[in-house]
Every structure is written in structure tokens, then in C-alpha cells.
Amino acid sequence: MTTYWLAQGVGVIAFLIGITTFINRDERRFKKQLSVYSAIIGVHFFLMGAFPAGSSAMLNAIRTLITLRTRSVWIMALFIVLTGGLGLAKFHHPMELLPVAGTIVSTWALFRFKGLPMRCVIWCSTGCWVIHNIWLGSIGGSLIEGSFLVMNGLNIIRFWRMQKRGIDPFKVETAQQEKPAAR
After folding, report:
1. Beta-sheet strands, E only, within 19-145
2. Is 171 exposed, middle or buried (0-12, 13-18, 19+ CB in 10 A)?
3. What's the CA gap between 107 and 113, in Å, rounded?
């Protein structure tokens, strides 16, 4: 029983760290914060005995940081194969496939998209995690992924409205990516 409450406590810590992730318009900060959240929630899932979700979350953390450096299709494929392989290796219930599917979809999004399209695909991925976390009984995981679903959904609408008015909500991100790297 102690492990259960420790796991739930780690999940709540992940919730507190991850709550502001989708507010970031700067893609680098967004990805760094998402990576920290993913690592902590991965520990939570391992403590809950949910190996497919834990391994998917840990791969999320590493993958998200790597997307700051490369958008290589080969690296993307490697993470998709690792996620599928690790997730399928120890699943016991079909619901455990939801975080694996969500991670595969978000991997594709982070390597192939930017800005609003990336956030829309990640929003769909989040739906998989919400259903899984409620099924698992993860308090912090359900709270954070439910919050991600709402916050990212509202930000998608806000950013889409900004684009309709001719405002680039990701201009900070675009300007930073166009600057030559300081050496």
C-alpha cells in the first residue's frame, strides 16, 4: 500500500510540473518542460506497475529532448519501433496499448510537425493517455492529462484564432530557429 501512495505522490508532483507545459509558445521551452514532466510521470507509472505506460513516458522524455536537435526520419522510426516493442513486450490488458499508441502518434508529430499542427496531433495523443490513466486509477496522471487535453485544446483554439487574424502565435519560435547558432 505504501508503494501505491508513493506512486500517487509522484504523479501529483508530475501534475504540478506539467500543468503549464502547453502555455509555452516557444517550442524549445515547451519541449524541455514536456520532457521533464514525461520522466517524472514515467517513474509514477513504473511505481503503479504499468510498464507499457512507464516505458512510453520515459521514451517520451528522451525523444522530446532529441527533437530539439534533429528531425531525422531514422531517429523518429527508431523511437516508434522502441515504443512499440517495449509497449507490446509487457502489456496485459488492451487498455495498456493506449499510451503506446499515443506515444507513437506524438513521436510522429514532434518529428514531422511544428506549431499548431504538432499541437493538434499531440492533443489526439493526449486523449489516449487520459483514457488509460482513468482506467489505471492514476490520480496525478488523470489530472495532468485531463488538464493537458483542456489546456492544449484551448490554446489550439486561441492560436488558430490568432492565425485567422494574421498573427503568427509562434513568431518567437520561428525567429529563434532562423537565427544562426552562437558558437
Report:
1. none
2. exposed
3. 10
Residue 82: predicted pLDDT: 96
**Residue with the three cell numbers 532562423:** 178
**Model's pTM, two decimal places?**
0.81
User: Which region holds residue 114: left if phi is over 0, alpha if psi is between -120 and 50, else beta?
Assistant: beta
Average pLDDT over residues 43-72: 93
Q: How many CB atoms within 10 Å of residue 148?
A: 24
Q: Nine-digit cell at 78? A: 527508431
Q: With contact defined as beta carbons under 8 Å apart, do 108 and 80 qualify?
A: yes
**131 CB-near residues (< 8 Å, 6+ apart):** 95, 98
DSSP for residue 93: S
